[in-house]
UniProtKB/TrEMBL annotation:
Keyword Transferase: yes
Organism: Secundilactobacillus paracollinoides
Name of the featured protein: Aminotransferase
Residue span, Aminotransferase class I/classII large domain: 36-386
Lineage of producing organism: Bacteria, Bacillati, Bacillota, Bacilli, Lactobacillales
Keyword Transferase listed: yes
Cofactor(s) needed by this chain: pyridoxal 5'-phosphate
Coiled-coil annotated residue ranges, if any: none
Family note: Belongs to the class-I pyridoxal-phosphate-dependent aminotransferase family.
Domain of life of the native organism: Bacteria
Annotated keywords: Aminotransferase, Pyridoxal phosphate, Transferase
Length: 399
């Protein structure tokens, strides 16, 4: 086994060295060795990719579709993305110049940050938020401005945005909105989006809209900010959640042509082009599978209702998720705000795994995230174990 030359030790990208690994994945790995644990840690749909979508990928392989596609993705896929955005949100994007097919929404976010940001730029991110965003801003050389939304129902209010913009000044280049949100499942009302759009327009900045969970909403319709600010919005989405395609790694960027021309360069430097079979599957999903998320949505909503009722029956508070598949739960008072200690103790003693809320930024401190993208059997058993554990708690037990 080779050992790095001593004089090369520590010779790494300094910005990368400033950030740690994913707090979600790190904690999941840490508790994975607990015997008989039920992990509700990862945002991983337990359902399968629809059969007709898989068949499209198989046909691509059998047809020897094994050569490089266009760097922005096949034109068939980009047309399918354009058609989907038109049907679902009445958005108009030119498949030739305004859409990039990416290797998952993760690559879409990465390509966006790396092609948009310069040292000295600032990016506003409401917290709690998906932990991926934070290190990517740092790696891009920009400054991360976190805004704690925990006292505002986990929504960035126009007033809060205005206040932070006045404080941080014109160096703010973008605000990132992820809704329905990870880790809270909270969806932004249309009137809030409209009010935020007014502030964003006034301050001459980008909005990066990560709408990966837009197909999984319960009792509300998703309203994209790109409807109001198409000239300022970098829209990010993908197939991972809507069609249970996390492993296929298919996402996309939709934005004005001047932005996508630059983002395409970064995308191409990173990945050259997406996988052809995955693109064929995504094309099928967005062409003939627009109803596929409906059945999944019903299942998730049933699970949401069960988990929410169970959590509240335990006397714990949580944000009511109107989308995605997460329960963001206030930890028991006996633990104060030490969500890491609670999550570790819960895993070891009750054998239930969740992600400490502080992994999602300052706004998540004192909470724990459970994913209900799990089987009914596991959810019922996990809630039973959690209930028994919470009932057994006394202050003396955790001091």
């Amino acid at each position: 086994m080779p050992k790095l030359a001593s004089e090369l030790s520590g010779q790494v990208n300094e910005r990368l060295n400033q950030v740690g690994p994913s707090g979600i994945r790190e904690f999941d790995l840490r508790i994975s060795s607990v015997p008989d644990i039920i992990k509700l840690t990862l945002g991983e749909p337990d359902m399968n990719t629809p059969e007709h979508v898989k068949e499209a990928a198989i046909k691509s392989i059998q047809a020897n579709d094994s050569h490089y596609s266009a760097q922005k993705g096949t034109i068939e896929l980009r047309r399918a993305i354009s058609g989907y955005l038109k049907k679902s949100q009445n958005l108009d994007y030119d498949p030739e110049t305004e859409i990039i097919a990416t290797v998952g929404a993760t690559e879409a976010v990465t390509a966006t940050f790396l092609s948009m940001l310069n040292p000295g730029d600032k990016v506003i991110i409401p917290t709690p938020a998906f932990a991926l965003y934070f290190p990517l801003v740092t790696i891009a050389g920009a400054e991360l401005i976190m805004v704690d939304t925990s006292k505002d129902g986990f929504i960035l209010t126009p007033e809060s945005l205005e206040a932070v913009l006045k404080k941080e000044g014109p160096a703010v280049k973008a605000v990132l909105l992820n809704y329905p949100g990870n880790p809270t499942g909270v969806e932004y009302p249309e009137e809030t989006i409209e009010a935020l759009a007014d502030v964003i327009r006034e301050h001459h900045m980008y909005v990066i809209a990560d709408e990966i969970y837009c197909e999984l909403t319960y009792g509300v319709d998703h309203f994209s900010i790109a409807k109001i600010l198409p000239e300022r919005t970098v829209l990010i989405n993908g197939l991972s959640k809507s069609h249970a395609m996390t492993g296929w790694r298919m996402g996309y960027i939709a934005a004005p042509a001047e932005f996508t021309a630059n983002a395409t360069k970064m995308h191409a430097f990173m990945v050259t082009s997406p996988s052809n079979p995955a693109q064929a599957a995504a094309t099928e999903a967005l062409t003939n599978g627009l109803d596929d998320p409906v059945a999944m949505r019903k299942i998730y909503q049933k699970r949401r209702d069960f988990v929410e009722a169970a959590i509240k029956d335990m006397g714990l508070d949580m944000a009511t998720p109107s989308g995605a598949f997460y329960a963001f739960v206030k930890i028991p008072e006996a633990f104060g705000t030490d969500d890491v200690r609670f999550a570790e103790t819960l895993a070891k003693e009750a054998k239930v795994g969740g992600v400490p809320g502080s992994a999602f930024g300052a706004g998540g401190e004192g909470y724990i995230r459970f994913s209900y993208a799990a089987s009914d059997e596991n959810l019922h058993e996990a809630m039973k174990r959690l209930k028994n554990y919470v009932a057994s708690l006394t202050t003396s037990q955790v001091d």
